[in-house]
Amino acid sequence: MTNDTLGVPRPPERKFHWVTIGTLALALVLLDIYSEPVLQFLVALWQKAVAALGLSQQANVLQGGSKSGIARRFLPAVATYAALYLALCLLLLRALLPLPAHWRLVLRLYCAVLVVYVALVLLAKAANAAWAYKLSREIADFVVSPIPVVGLYLLFRASLGINNPAPENKSTTINHTDES
Asked: Closest by alpha carbon to 93, among 81, 80, 104, 82?
């Protein structure tokens, strides 16, 4: 059960709420610390899956000339890692930000960054613009980090952006006495 005005968990749910936040934060930190072994596992898993489906040649064509940075790795594995990391970030933000307005704004911000990222990647491919590829890599590295989670949490908790709504006044009856 939640407090109707702010969506803040009531005391019986509060312990579970903070255990959930702690678990998600720990999972995010562990995924960040052990990114190399996780990526190696995902690369092996995806290569086996692609080979089992007989799509190794198509996967190699998709990989193409990507030989810099994290793109040296098998692209489906990198995409899976990024999706897992973003899912943990979004789940943690959902648990930390109880107001629906905050959550909707977080989703809009992440979607806007995704659109900018895709536009830069397409520009880099179409115009052979190295600067656009480098910028898209920087954006991807920023988003797949704990920095946006911490920044957005601090932003909303400091009541910047969208303010917490004031509790609604339940009394709507006004007694008027006309003594004229």
From this structure: 104
